[in-house]
Design brief:
Blueprint: E1 7-8, H1 15-18, H2 21-31, E2 34-37, E3 42-45, H3 48-56, E4 60-61, H4 70-73, H5 83-90, H6 100-109, H7 114-117, H8 121-135, E5 140-142, H9 143-148, H10 150-160, H11 167-178, H12 187-213, H13 219-225, E6 227-228, E7 231-232, H14 235-267, H15 271-274, H16 278-291, E8 298-302, E9 306-307, E10 313-314, E11 319-322, H17 324-327, H18 362-379, E12 384-385, E13 404-406
Parallel strand pairs: 1-2, 3-11
Antiparallel strand pairs: 2-3, 4-8, 5-13, 6-7, 8-11, 9-10, 12-13
Length: 407
């Protein structure tokens, strides 16, 4: 296939697009599963097989300046007014490649393995019920604000060893920083995200200094004290990792909770059957992740000059877009891909990524989602939509502005 084919246009800031990107994906799957997205200025892949393979392809990476200079790539200089935001990303697991990524991930990974996070399930059950207790007598609520957002923020804050009452502030900083991933970000947003980054880093710096004097049984202390081959994490690495865990650790879970409740309520299926057993609850969560994914595009740099098996060629430094939301609806991989079916036998998804950047928090997110859905529909079996939900104007992060429900 020649790189000269298949040019497509779709404005990520057009409400018709971000409210329903699946219509565009349906067109792409029928036409050219690999296409040049003119609005972004790079090639994109939408096939499940291709996205899954490219996520694992070590010839592509999340960073490029470790193997090339800005001058070589004709890359613009960093913007001084987003220096703090850039600092938070400098040591982010999501932005690093081996060997730096391997070292950092190894030191953090232990806290997120399945057997460890499974011990958090009773706490998450209590937390979900506390949230529901807060609004169950009201007859209606915005589930994003009262349920979906607080749970993962509190869980990750407690894992790190931050006070539960800090969760709203952490959410505020995180939401302002995540706005940087919008298409066509304006300077006002950049300044605001930078201020949020400064405040977030300053807060964590203070907590880290306290932990050095008085260690606790928490993830921050673990990151400060953990060693690998005699090496420890620097404060900058600990801060970057803590911010990533807080931002990524709630952002995708909030969106999947909201999107999933919407999918379930719009499907007309009986929630009792969807959560009748632990196995079926897990399958329902996986279908929610597939059907309306929380993250729709992940980019990679070509780390050298590359020719793919299909003949497509990329120069060192070129960006490609891996379209997770589209891959999850690939008709070559799934029967009736645009149908929400928690009982399907061909279930799978790439919503957590794959390869070395597979989401470190996936086991925790799965538990949070299983518990949140199960407890919500157990406690409020008459739950229904109070208005048609609408999505935020942040295409990459596909999530609802609000989710008004009643019972």
């Amino acid at each position: 296939m020649s790189n000269a084919q298949a040019v497509e246009q779709a404005d990520p800031r057009d409400p018709n697009f971000y409210q329903d990107p699946y219509a565009f994906y349906h067109h792409i799957h029928a036409a050219n599963p690999s296409f040049y997205w003119q609005n972004y200025g790079h090639w994109c892949f939408t096939g499940f097989k291709e996205v899954n393979a490219l996520l694992r392809d070590k010839r592509f990476g999340r960073q490029i300046l470790h193997v090339a200079t800005r001058a070589e790539l004709k890359m613009p200089a960093p913007k001084p007014h987003v220096a703090a935001f850039d600092q938070t990303e400098k040591y982010s697991l999501l932005a690093l490649e081996p060997p730096a990524h391997t070292r950092l991930r190894t030191l953090v990974n232990r806290a997120f393995v399945s057997r460890h996070v499974e011990q958090l399930r009773p706490r998450i059950v209590r937390l979900a019920n506390e949230m529901i207790d807060g609004f169950s007598a009201d007859g209606g609520t915005d589930l994003i604000k009262s349920f979906a957002a607080p749970i993962p923020a509190i869980v990750i804050a407690e894992m790190l060893g931050l006070p539960t009452e800090m969760a709203p502030q952490l959410l505020n900083w995180s939401n302002r920083m995540v706005a940087m991933y919008m298409f066509g970000v304006d300077e006002v947003t950049e300044h605001d995200a930078n201020q949020a980054s400064l405040d977030f880093m300053a807060y964590l710096g203070t907590v880290i200094a306290e932990r050095r004097k008085a260690p606790k049984e928490d993830l921050l202390t673990h990151m400060i004290t953990a060693e690998q081959n005699g090496e420890k994490l620097s404060d900058e690495e600990v801060i970057s990792t803590a911010i990533l865990l807080l931002n990524a650790g709630h952002e995708a879970t909030v969106h999947t909770t909201g999107n999933g409740v919407k999918s379930i309520l719009e499907s007309g299926l009986d929630p009792k059957t969807l959560f009748a057993t632990d196995e079926q609850a897990a399958a329902t969560v996986e279908e929610c992740l597939r059907f309306d994914a929380p993250l729709h595009m992940f980019t990679r740099y070509a780390l050298g000059d590359i020719t793919l098996d299909n003949g497509m060629a990329f120069k060192k430094g070129q960006v490609i877009g891996l379209m997770l939301g589209a891959a999850n609806r690939d008709p070559l991989r799934f029967s009736n891909p645009n149908s929400f079916d928690p009982f399907r036998t061909d279930g799978a998804n790439v919503s957590f990524g794959a390869g070395i950047h597979f989401c470190i928090g996936a086991p925790l997110a799965r538990i949070e989602l299983q518990v949140a859905f199960t407890e919500l529909f157990r406690r409020l079996p008459r739950l229904k939509l109070a208005e048609t939900p609408s999505y935020n104007d942040v295409y990459h992060f596909h999530g609802l502005e609000r989710l008004r429900v009643e019972w």
